[in-house]
Amino acid sequence: MPTTIEVNKQSVETLLGSGRFKPFVIPEYQRPYAWSDEQVETLFEDLWEFTAGSGGTENNGSYFLGSIVSYENDDGEQEIIDGQQRITSLFLLLRAIYTRLTDTLESERTAEAKNFISKIEPTIWRTNKLTGVVDYTDILLTSRVMNNDGNQILKTILETGETSENAKDNYSKNYRLFQSLLDKHSLENPLMVYQFIYALLNQAILLPITADTQDTALTIFSTLNDRGLPLSEADIFKAKIYNQLDVDNKKLFIKRWKDLDEQATYNKESIQQLFYYYMFYLRALEKDIKTTTPGIRKYYANEKFKRLFEVDLMDNLCIILNLWKVINKGQEIDGEAWSKNNKIKQSLDTLSSYPNEFWKYPVVIYYICHRNKEDFEVKFTAFLNKLLLELFTKYLISPTVNAVKTDILKLNAEIVKSDKPIFNFKEIDMAILENHIQNPHRNLVRMLLKILAYQEQDTLLPDNWEIEHIFPQKWQDNYFTDVSEITIKEKIEYIGNKVPFEKKLNIIAGNGYFGKKKKEYLSSNISITKKLGTLEIDEWNLDSIMTRNIRILDSVKNILSQWNDRYNNISTESTIEAQPTDSDLEKIEEYKRKGWI
Questions:
Q1: Cα separation, 454 vs 347, whole angstroms
Q2: How far apart are CA 278 and CA 300, in angstroms?
Q3: In the chain, where are the structural domains located?
Q4: What is the pLDDT of residues 420-463, one digit of tens each?
Q5: Is the pLDDT of residue 137 over 80?
């Protein structure tokens, strides 16, 4: 079915007046009203300046306010996707003007005041089409922003024109500011007030973009939006779930969502990212190994968003977050011994240096599927190292996303079937890897240094470490007499000339030569680097680099071989078509009672 979009510039009076037939709604998934004092003043002052310059009279210019993106929902309402801050501010400004125009007795009002009162009324409230009587309780703009006291505050302001002087919410503050600005300019230039109102209603132009569906409107919004934080897919998902619940469970859900949101942010993730990880888990369950990754909103919107209404959705998002609490913050999870295992943490830390995100999906899926097994800690360690082996070696040979994309998606589907999934990665001859290990792709240097460093210590590397060139990248020209500059530059970048080094110590060491830097190496808490400070030599040259290169090559080959053997030797326990436990069944019954399913 083709997409249809209507675009037709309109005056404020025309657009807001259309709310009499199709009222405006700010949906649940939108963020609360957040315009600042500066934005309110800018809108008012710009309109006043426009009026003073060329506006305020018929057919004399226009002032563009921006676009409003909406679509007509199933209830015949104009659901605002983009422009809710702007349209809300216009309602508040018009209400502030209306309040001032009606402050005087009707018998004392000027003809201009009576005219603009009659013009403003149908932009804020529904009027009887036969009698013209205004229903001040039937407001043309409704905010349904989830769990937000401001919804009622906005309604009260638009209905009564009143707000507490002590109110700190943005609706009240901005409404009072509009009143203050209007009063100030009315005193300074009383003759221009009515021209200002005329310009606001007739010459301030909006560009309404009306789409046929919510999906189309959101796509338009994503394309146009360059202001502040874009509306996230998670906001849409939150509203969809929320609307399926009864009153009591809505409160429970909002509390749980807010807690998850705060925890995700603290742990350097987001709810939207958790949904993205979860999508790969669901795709693995569905045996979907297509290499084209669907858009997250399109994926969850399939079959009327039914995936969002699964009973275990929020539980699984929390489970996924637990994994990232360990990876991103080093937290320990109650009742999960693996989260205290430093070797597992080291493997996860090493994977985090992989040049793209495809390592994350099998790790998430493995954790969701197998975390409750008695031998999880042993198998998870072996699995992570096997994954490291495969990703590291493949990127050495082919440093692109596509080199592992297909294999990762196949692995995801294998993980849900077994706690010892089959890795269908193409086998690589170790001899082919030797040159690549000696001079690895720049995107893999940190990963390789972590692999080497973690063979020497049980603790994690410090957060702020840098790649240290043992022989400095900047050398004195007279240091070498019989070696070409090209050869020097090439060998300085070999892995044999690099170690991880704390940033502060690296700054102190600077570009000094080996004999001078040994003292700083000895101060390092990184074992592999500290050992350099104990060497009984004061000179580090190209031969030193090549000698260390050989040792590193042997070490890496040995590490990779051990990882492969350990994975092959672990026992397997099939989990195909696992049946729900008594605990799972109890949880399902509990959610049924709460109205979640």
A1: 9
A2: 10
A3: 5-231, 234-423
A4: 999 999 888 778 888 889 889 999 999 999 999 999 999 999 99
A5: yes
